[in-house]
Structure formats: C-alpha cells, structure tokens
Amino acid sequence: MSKLSQAIPTPGAAEDVEILDRTTRYQGFFTLDTLKVRHRLFDGGWSQPMTRELFVRGAAVGVLLYDPDHRLVGLVEQFRVGALAEPGGPWVLEVVAGMMKPDEDAAAVARRETQEEAGIDQLRLEPICRYLVSPGGTDEVLTLFCGITDLRGRAGCFGLADEHEDIRLHVLPEADVLAGLAAGAYNNAATIVCLQWLALNRDRLHDLATHGWRDP
Fold this sequence. Notes:
There is one protein chain. The protein has about 220 residues and is α+β, with helices and mostly antiparallel strands. The chain has 3 helices and 11 strands; from the N terminus they run E-E-E-E-E-E-E-H-E-E-E-E-H-H. Strands 4, 5, 6, 7, 8, 9, 10 and 11 form an 8-stranded mixed β-sheet that branches. Strands 1-2-3 form a 3-stranded antiparallel β-sheet, with no helix packed on it. It is globular and about 60 Å long. The relative contact order is 0.17.
C-alpha cells in the first residue's frame, strides 16, 4: 500500500479506543455483536460510553474479470437476499467475490473464487484497492483485484451446489459495460469501484497485454 500524502491527515489509532464490553447477540450464517465503547476526542479527553451493534462479516475478496486483448469484461449474476426490494429484482450483476477464512491470502481466495464462480483457472491478478464496506455498522473489508484472462467462450453457469450457488457468468464488450456504468446500471459498490478503476486503467492494461507484462 502506498504511503499517504503529507496533506492527508493520519487517522486515530486503535489504542485510542477502549472496549468496555462485547456481547454476541446472534451467531448464525453471520454474527451480530453489541459493543460498549469509548474513544478519545479530537479536542482531548474521552467520549462518554456508547453502545453500538456490529455486524461481524470479516474479510472478503472481489475480482473483476477482464480480457484486454479482446476488450471483454466478465460479470457474474446471482440471487442476493439483500436486493429483494430492488426495483429490478434480487438478481445482481457483480464481480466474482467470496469470503476469506482466517489467515487466508487474498490472492489465493481470488483465484479460488474465480474457479468456483466462473470456471476460470488461468488468471493474472492486478490489485485495485482495499476498502471498508460500511464501517458504521460492519467490520467487513473488501480487497479488489482485476483478473486478467482470456474470456472468449467462457460465458456459462457455475457455482457450488452445496453452497446454494447458482451463478451465471456474462461476457460482455468493454464498451457496453462502461456505458452501463455511466448510465447507473450497477447497484453494488464493489462492481462500481472496479469498473471505475477499469475506465481509468483499461488503456494501460491493453498496452501491457500487447507489449508483454512486466512483473515487479
């Protein structure tokens, strides 16, 4: 990760927070904890104790599939319970994604999920970013990659039946996908972030694919 510019303030540190109590309220597919905390104030001293609910989600990985040689983008479509109220319905067009287990490597998870959700095992990973999904209420952190691969003839249905996955891979022209981005066709943050990154980096990726990848 690159160093922050000197113009960007350094956020407070973990030692500036005191956890007074933590109780697990629900343990199932996900976990919900209640925390009682206090933290240092910007003008000195400590805040009053406050209670917050935390949706314990953990770390995840997302992969935007891209073929710079043929200007193709791969997006997966699947049912998402959190999108039940969406006007277009609960099937979401998104990047490949999956949860990380403790001590797993993000790149290894990216490759595993791409195999499971898109049937692709030949992949060059280009880092995009790492971000907190919604830090006001969940600890989920998402690491994003661009997965460089040959997407010709790769569209189809994938997923693990024992994980209730029914996933369809769409292979689409880059121009159409980015036109959809400009038109507001995507409704999830990871896909929007990845496609914005692609819009800024596609010519560089195309040049690298044409003239040969240079590893650091």
